[in-house]
Amino acid sequence: MRPIAREEQEDGGGAEGRGGAGPAWPTGPDDVRVRLEQGGYLADDGLAVACFLALRLRRPIFCEGDAGVGKTALASALATALDAPLIRLQCHEGIDASQALYDWDFPRQLLHLRAAEAAGLTDADRLEDELYGRRFLIARPLLRALETRSCVLLVDEIDRADDEFEAFLLELLSEYTVTIPELGTLRAQSPPVVVLTSNRTREVHDALKRRCLYHWFDHPGFARELAIVRRRVPAASARLAEQVTALVQALRAQELVKPPGVAETVDWAEAMAALGATEADAELAVATLGSVLKYREDLERARGLDLTALLAVRGA
Questions:
Q1: Which end is more exposed in the chain, N or C (fewer Cβ atoms within 10 Å of the end residue's Cβ)?
Q2: Phi/psi of residue 217, each to 5°?
Q3: How buried is residue 26: exposed, middle or buried, by Cβ count under 10 Å (0-12/13-18/19+)?
């Protein structure tokens, strides 16, 4: 693994700033939108602008919204558009630096210590330097992202982490440096493209948000959601895709515990297509509700709706 440079190189935001790897960076929001669409991700104007500015200004983009609206998929689509590796850090309650940044390979260190003792090595300073050398360091996602030139770093569901980890992440993203006591302060040669996501299970502190460009992911309108389903589920007929999209849009208007996201719309269309359906009816919709709704209360509410009438709204 290539070590991090001690001094950060100048990065102009173009192909030269990326070390010439992969295609040149997008020239504007329209170019971003086209590249994302080529990778199967449909972005609106606001998101295309936010992504372009994040690339040009070298600032993280903070994506917030309900689950299943395309926040995580954006990072993968950006990596594809930039021909860059994607490194993902999945946040959870209790996550700390040893899980996110680096840790020492204690089993290997112990084996090395025993081998040194067997060989009669008595130089304690030399042995300590060897034990805490780079080869015994396990790079976790954040350190790998700093060491990998021109990558996309996804920090997924930052709202699940605690305040201490949030503060630690803010410090790291401010300078793209990390201090390892045994090795010193290391600085990335080229900062990664950073995408942070939040499902808003708790409020993320303003200090972290101020460091980022912000974009709120709302549920898409009918036309855009239908286009996503047609793109993601080519096996579904045009009629089936329209019916499923219409049903999901109607379900979101209900008072549900968890309104379905675009990901659930895609899942529902895939489920019906897998059953060989070319169009939906109330019986099929009820039988496959588990693809789109994940709470018992929501299933009961949906089963109590007149799904035939909802389908008829769009001429189904």
A1: N
A2: -95, 110
A3: buried
88: enclosing H helix or E strand: strand 86-90
Of residues 261 and 5, the one with the higher pLDDT is: 261
Strand arrangement of the beta sheet that strand 213-217 belongs to = 86-90, 152-156, 193-198, 61-65, 213-217
- What pLDDT score was predicted for residue 187? 85
pLDDT of residue 135: 85
pLDDT on residue 314: 60
Spatial separation of the C-alpha atoms in residues 142 and 15, rounded to whole Å = 23
What are the structure tokens assigned to 236, written together? 């579904």
Q: CA-based Rg of the chain, rounded to a whole angstrom?
A: 24
pLDDT digits (tens, 9 = 90+) for 17-69: 444 444 577 889 999 999 999 988 999 999 999 999 999 999 999 999 998 89
Sign of CA dihedral 300, 306, 310, 312: positive
Backbone angles phi, psi at 177, to 5 degrees: -130, 160
Place of tokens 């558009």: 81
Three-state secondary structure along 152-206?
EEEEECHHHCCHHHHHHHHHHHHHCEEEECCCEEEECCCCCEEEEEECCCCCCCH
Residue type, 300: E
Q: Give Cβ neighbours of residue 159 (< 8 Å, ≥ 6 apart).
A: 91, 198, 199, 200, 201, 202, 203, 204
pLDDT at residue 121 greater than cutoff 90: no
Nearest CA to 191 out of 182, 201, 178, 206 is that of 178
pLDDT digits (tens, 9 = 90+) for 167-224: 889 888 888 888 888 888 888 888 899 999 999 989 999 999 999 999 999 999 999 9
Asked whether the beta carbons of 1 and 139 are under 8 A apart, the reply is yes
pLDDT of residue 144: 93
Q: Which secondary-structure segment (H or E) carries 65? A: strand 61-65
